[in-house]
Amino acid sequence: MALLCACTGNEKKTTPWGTVIGEQEKADGAFTLHDIIANGEMIMLTLPGPEYYYDYHGHGFGTQYLLCQLFAQQIGVTLRVELCKDTTEMIERLRKGDADVLVFPLPDGLAKDNDLLTCGAGSDSLSVHWAVRRDNQLLADTLTAWYRPSYVKRVHDYEDYVFSERSIQRHVYQPVISEAKGLISNYDHLFQRYASVAGVDWRLLAALAYQESCFDPNAKSWAGACGLMQLMPSTAAHLGLSGGSIFQPEANVSASAKYIRELLSTLADVSDREERINFMLACYNGGTGHVRDAMALTRKYGGNSYRWADVSQFILKLSEPRFYQDPVVKYGYMRGTETFNYVSLVRQRYMKYCGFAGGSYSPSSGASGMDPVPHPASRPHRFTLD
Q1: Which conformational region is residue 250 in: left (phi greater than 0), alpha (psi within -120 to 50 degrees), or beta?
Q2: Which of 94, 233, 258, 326 has the most crowded CB, counting CB atoms within 10 A?
């Protein structure tokens, strides 16, 4: 579908779905479709949650958000998300002109009572749709003409792909070259060299690398994570690693070691060494913000916020509205099962590596008295209808 162009003067454009965009009266306090296209940005209001909007490793997800992103792409503008605490706040902010569209299945009757126009994605049988201000009739008509129920399946198929192994481009190598020789991978010398930089046992670096890339230095995820340790380009740049070097094994491991050291320092309040290992693994995969949210929930409900067995239960609960909407939670919904499993898998592989590569595991086996950690697992390309 062709992208729309901004209009000037009395010029008129016809969209692929039949709406004519031309000069129109400016809605008081609101941006018309003409204004949105001219300014290059559309602002949506919604709620946090898996059906509406959540952040996953720096990328927006949620059925309603992805649908609105499709529409924004079709008219050639970027999409900005503003999260609200409830439908009352969404309606009030839309009426004030703080945003262009309310991206939430709002009951048609409630929209009418608040002088809003329902339009776009939704369900005719359930009488729920998105909404815009009543003086934005052209935007409402364009959204309604654009939307197809089949787009929902397209969104769900995309999300299924994102969270599957198919979305990571990598060669899967064996997790061990030789148990008898204590040789884990062809990169053991790099893990050993940079373990002191990270402040972790070199075998933990090996376990992380296998979990992230299966020891493929050319691995790349849909989100752009690259190399042995699956560094995001933004993280690599922060660590002084150029984009041209991100796939070089030594440069990648070296930068990851620095990143691990940074992450370790953020959890200095977790005094127990073994517990800090678990928390660092969780932060590396799920993000420090979500882990801190789970710790805050653990405290609120009477658990030990520095004990992984307690906090991990709230990592899982952050996928439930009751918990990700709790006032102590700052970062909203998370895919807690992934992070919960990630910690277990890296830990288990680390202990197996310790069993044959350099002796048995012991709490004192880490370098520099610090603890091990991992980096975000990734996933696919830009989502369009093409």
Answers
A1: alpha
A2: 94
**Residue recorded with tokens 């002191």:** 196
In the chain, what's the furthest Cα-to-Cα distance? 79
Give me the amino acid identity at 141.
Answer: D
Q: What is the DSSP string of 221-250?
A: ETT--BTTTTB-HHHHHHTT--GGGTTSHH
Prediction pTM value:
0.75
**Do 45 and 90 form a contact (C-beta atoms < 8 A)?**
yes
Q: What whole-number distance in Å separates Cα of residue 229 and Cα of residue 206?
A: 9
Please check whether residue 145 is in contact with residue 115, taking contact to mean a CB–CB distance below 8 angstroms: no
Identified catalytic residue from 23, 89, 165, 212: 212
Burial 6-45 (b: 16+ CB within 10 A, else e): bbeeeeeeebeeebebeeeeebeebbbbbbbbeeeebbbb
Please state the length of the chain.
386
Annotated catalytic residue 250: no
Interval 150-177: pLDDT, tens: 999 999 998 888 877 776 777 778 899 9
Q: Which residue has the tokens 């999409």?
A: 79
Q: Could you read off the pLDDT of 187-201 as tens digits, one per residue?
A: 999 999 999 999 999
At 222, list the tokens.
């849909």
Residue that is written with structure tokens 């992230």 in the block: 212
Q: What stretch of H or E contains 3?
A: none
